[in-house]
Amino acid sequence: MTLGELAEEMRLTGVMQGGRVGHGVEVMARMFGDQGCTVFLSLTGPLVAGGLRLVIRDLVLGGHVDALVTNGANMVHDLLESMGVPHLAGSDQLDDEEVYREGYSRAYDIFIEASAFPELEGYVKGLLGRVPREELRGVGFSEFLALLGGLVEDEGSILRAAAQKGVPIFSPGFLDCMLGIPLWLYAKESGLSFDPLKDFDRFADMVYEAERTGAILLGGGTPKHHTQYLNTLRGGLDYAVQISSARVEDGSLSGAPLRESITWGKLKEGRLEENAVTIFGEVTSLFPFMVGAALERLGATR
After folding, report:
1. 47-74: pLDDT as tens digits
2. How confident is the model over 230-254, as a mean pLDDT?
3. d(CA 276, CA 259)
């Protein structure tokens, strides 16, 4: 079986998460194939460090997504990979105090040398030193990330691909990452300043100008909410695929199923049966398979 054939068999079962994954592939393929649909890809958690960097980059380069909405961490890890800093696999059962003493930080079973973060600070300062200071005053986060992407030389970089394709990267909570404190300090000597409302203008323009909108929501948090929230300006999304391992019982946004978002005007009525699906699962396990199957349905050969 090909990926697409397997996904179709899963869809035909129509039950449990296998049926939902198959349905999600179908909805993603519709989104990608709808020329009038503006597609937002929402990222949270350590998805770049978890191995999805090239999957995301290829979706950008292939013209399948029109904007990324992400936490700051994924862009930090994209920059680290561009520097040649590896993400290492290990055990989540190791003694964390010993891990710290040996000079590593971890996210579950992903390890990175703690010394990489001061190196990252120097790397980013070097890139920004090539930008005229007046261009760093009052920038939106999407403008700032596009500036960085235009200077990164690594062809595997999401930032670089997005800058090349003109795909904005929205990151409303960008400073809540390992670059937040370094950029705060850098701003004191360089005049760097941010204007987050500029990104509201840019995001809102995309939403207003779209014939239809769709979202692939990987995990929850601020990126998920921001994607859905800005789409309330047009009465909600037309398509949506959500993959999340968060539970619903605590009332969190991360665990909220798509049917709940209808009550907030984040998803249009009448979309649940055909064009929206909530999948309970872990993103790095499911998303590469779903992308491959969806692109196969479109006849893509990449």
Report:
1. 999 999 999 999 999 999 999 999 999 9
2. 95
3. 9
Looking at 114-175, which runs of residues are DSSP E strands? 169-170
Active-site position among 165, 224, 266, 268: 266
- Which pLDDT band holds residue 261 (cuts at 50, 70, 90)? very high
- State the Cα–Cα distance between residues 237 and 265, nearest whole angstrom: 9
Residue 252's CB is within 10 A of a number of other CB atoms, namely: 13
Distance between CA atoms of 215 and 272, rounded to whole angstroms? 14
DSSP state of 264: G
Q: How many residues in total does the chain contain? A: 302
Cβ atoms of 11 and 293 within 8 Å: the answer is no
Tokens of 82: 């561009």
When pLDDT is averaged across residues 203-227 and rounded to a whole number, the result is 97
Q: Reply yes or no on whether 266 is catalytic.
A: yes
Nearest CA to 174 out of 189, 159, 196, 147 is that of 196
